[in-house]
Design a protein that fits this description.
The structure holds two protein chains of two kinds.
Chain A lengths: L1 H12 L6 H17 L1 H12 L3 H27 L2 E2 L10 E8 L2 E5 L7 H12 L3 E5 L5 H14 L5 E3 L4 H9 L4 E5 L2 H14 L3 E4 L5 E4 L5 H13 L11 E4 L4 H16 L15 H10 L4 E4 L3 E2 L4 E2 L2 E4 L16 E6 L3 H9 L6 E5 L3 H10 L4 E4 L20 E2 L4 H7 L1 E8 L5 H4 L8 H12 L7 H16 L5 H18 L2
Parallel strand pairs in A: 3-4, 3-6, 4-5, 6-7, 8-9, 8-15, 9-14, 13-14, 15-16
Antiparallel strand pairs in A: 1-2, 2-18, 7-17, 10-13, 11-12
Chain B lengths: L24 H12 L6 H17 L1 H12 L3 H27 L2 E2 L10 E8 L2 E5 L7 H12 L3 E5 L5 H9 L10 E3 L4 H8 L5 E5 L2 H14 L3 E4 L5 E4 L5 H13 L11 E4 L1 H19 L15 H10 L4 E4 L3 E2 L4 E2 L2 E4 L16 E6 L3 H9 L6 E5 L3 H10 L4 E4 L20 E2 L5 H6 L1 E8 L5 H4 L8 H10 L9
Parallel strand pairs in B: 3-4, 3-6, 4-5, 6-7, 8-9, 8-15, 9-14, 13-14, 15-16
Antiparallel strand pairs in B: 1-2, 2-18, 7-17, 10-13, 11-12
Helix pairs in contact in B: 2-4, 2-5, 3-4, 3-6, 4-5, 9-10
The chains are: A alpha/beta, B alpha/beta.
Chain lengths: 504, 486
Amino acid sequence: MEREVQRVRAAFGSGRSRPLTFRRRQLEALRAMVQEREKDILAAIGADLSKSEFNAYSQEVISVLGEIDLMLEKLPEWAAAKPAQRNLLTMLDEAYIQPEPLGVVLIIGAWNYPFVLTIQPLIGAIAAGNAVIIKPSEVSENTAKLLAKLLPQYLDQDLYAVVNGGVEETTELLKQRFDHILYTGNTAVGKIVMQAAAKHLTPVTLELGGKSPCFVDRDCDLDVACRRIAWGKFMNCGQTCIAPDYVLCEPSLQDQIVRKVQEAVKEFYGENVKESPDYERIVNLRHFKRIQSLLEGQKIAFGGEMDEATRYIAPTVLTDVDPDTKVMQEEIFGPILPIVPVKNADEAIQFINEREKPLAFYVFSHNSKLIKRMIDGTSSGGVTGNDVIMHFMLSSLPFGGVGSSGMGAYHGKHSFDTFSHQRPCLLKTLKREGANQLRYPPNSQSKVDWAKFFLLKQFNRGKLGLLLLTLLGVLAAVLIKRYQAVLRTKALLLFLAVHRRAIP
Amino acid sequence: MSGIKRPGLAKDPGSESTPGMDPFADTLQRLREAFISGRTRPAEFRATQLKGLSCFLRENKQLLQEALAQDLHKAAFHSDISELIICQNEVDLALRNLCTWMKDEPVAKNLITQLDSTFIRREPFGLVLILSPWNYPLNLSLVPLVGALAAGNCVVLKPSEISKNTGKVLAKVLPRYLDQSCFAVVLGGPEETGQLLEHEFDYIFFTGTPRVGKIVMAAAAKHLTPVTLELGGKNPCYVDDNCDPQTVANRVAFFRCFNAGQTCVAPDYVLCSPEMQARLVPALQNAITRFYGDDPQSSPNLGRIISQKHFQRLRGLLSCGRVVIGGQSDESDLYIAPTVLVDVQETDPVMQEEIFGPILPIVNVRSLGQAIDFINRREKPLALYAFSNNSQVMNQMLDRTSSGNFVGNEGFTYMSLTSLPFGGVGKSGMGRYHGKFSFDTFSHHRACLLSHSGLEVLKNIRYPPYSDYTQKLFTWAMGSHLCTLL
């Protein structure tokens, strides 16, 4: 493990991953891989999650292709130095922020969307000029094996390496030193990752989870709301970090919601959900049993059918759920939708705030003031109003959590920034040392006043006229440089004194 | 796993200390309740806090100058330019821009979100802990505080116990200017800091050494608390053959000796050729004499070492290599003379740790390439300095190294620029602040997408079952050339 990391580090040290042309080539190769080996990729995802080809394509592959294209288009702009506003003290200097690669990045993927959750961060890391070690989740083993086979065929083998394995291998890997770690997974392991990172002072991005609440107001289009909730909840058999985990609503709405969700389920998956090619399965027996235990003692409004042999759990809705029961104590990550009745929006806000900050918050209402109030009154990684999941789809929005749902963010430019060091640069000339005499000891009151003048005044367009005059003064000083240095300094000081008096 | 978190509990269950023994539980609970009440969110409240901070700086200028003089033998002028004015600047900037910074930031939409409202909302994290060091005890406490308050957080400030006089002023006087239900100053040493770190915060901002940075991050990991760590390292200063030695010497000597060398971004050591060294040393002597006189110990413009412990540490370093300038020390005065060492080896103690004193070792290199290799063999520094008239040299140095910040032909004046983010990379730190970067650091950037219930027909395409026709349509619409839009 150590040797693998060292090899990748040495490759980064060669500087090969830095030129933009190289990064472009790698991204183009990645796109070729996705396009040429599409069938293999869809088959692997399908094998891991019992997912139809179309679902695998529309849920994972499309996002990857979109991200690659975005990076390719924007790379020159994002990688360019950005000039920074200067103050009077530095107005003749060059000041800018230069994005740079961090070095060796570790990406630990998750099993629920095994392709996109590993490759989308990889795209950002490559674009930012880093070397990358990818550790796919061992739970989605088909995808993990495929990535280990395909990536070296398309990407630079020294700069980008896939490491597979379970808990033991991951622990070994985390002992090594990286320059950034992006982890997608659960809160408990998130803490372990951050602890390991602390030993090397490695910055981390943790994409964790939680129970994403969904408030349904009485004043909303219930048909539409229930359809959207059903779509987001039962997609990937509920195994989505930003799935609406549970619903909060007034007691009178419960029955209607149950009915309409049931209608939506029928519409999406047919009478016999088990037969639908678009309905996935639980990833493994451990999770199957875990979700099964959540139903104990619950009032099942519809659903609840299970088949251990195929790890099938039917779309299920629970009503009048007691907040102290097991189903409300952990992230469900399955096709079970509890409805917890609350008196009103305020009680919903209180309910949400008593719990850990979730990764996503959803609210359905026609009343935009209510939506605003609920957003203002809560905190979460992200928000989608009157729909679910969608804030994930827009790459101009940073995707990440807060509190125990995570830290840091990525997608689009946010990926590029996450995997870069934004290095501020100030370049001065060695000339005009005369002007610097002001700051060197021994000191005097006049020097204090001058210091205040330089440090406190803003350099902005409004004062451009004055600055032009100052520049002229400097120019004049430079022209007079043929004479003594003292004269130069005095001329500069004279001009500056005039302007200092002019500025209130 | 996510469970119920009772807001009244400042401690996490399973914490070692018993309620009676925990001196911070009440304070933290009070602050947390204040945050939950929403008091710190409105712009007016935040502006009032910032104005309070501004008054504190203006009305206690002399008191603060005296405290800084007692702690670090800082001349009033130096206190002004490196602490008071910087803080004032930051407060003024935050007050001027608060409403702009607080606004929701609209973001570009794609094809499917054209009719939606999409923006990033900056929200306070909640309860913020600021741990500040002793070398610029006012600046490094208040500048982060400005950001945390502007962002709407409740704050616990723990200044360093080593700069005790400034700490006292911050603990006794500052709270009078701020809303004490949302702000507290906590005093104490490593033990108290350890106790404090067992509690859960929503953000921790630490300035100090990498060693303690690791401890802070490990403690933060237990609660998944995000952190900004402003650490340090050995800041290299490359001096090219193509430059004017006196100008370079002025700049290097001034920034090395400022605050008696106790600056995280001070040039730590010089890399240059033996030929350049021969010209630089006399120029350095010239600069030092001009700045501090023939007897620097009697100059009011030279600071003192903060404590006996650091003084002894620095005195030990004086025996590395060969002293060509300075080398004197006075234990009773905690005085170390501006010193330049030559014939220094990479393995000498003076090259093993951040010096943090007015000692400047010169290490010889034969070429720019050798200097770059030397720098890259070591941990990424907080600041990297290069002096040269040749822009090619400058670009090479910039392209082939990494550091928190980079400066060409100057010292750390860039610290006065609030438009540049200040922070480290690698062992020199993570995260950044100053100006708007502070506000962003202490804010959670919440992604918001507000859609409507109408036009459901447009969203029908995403629902199963997917007929062949739907699949083809979907695939065409999401075809890779359109993916950028989507």
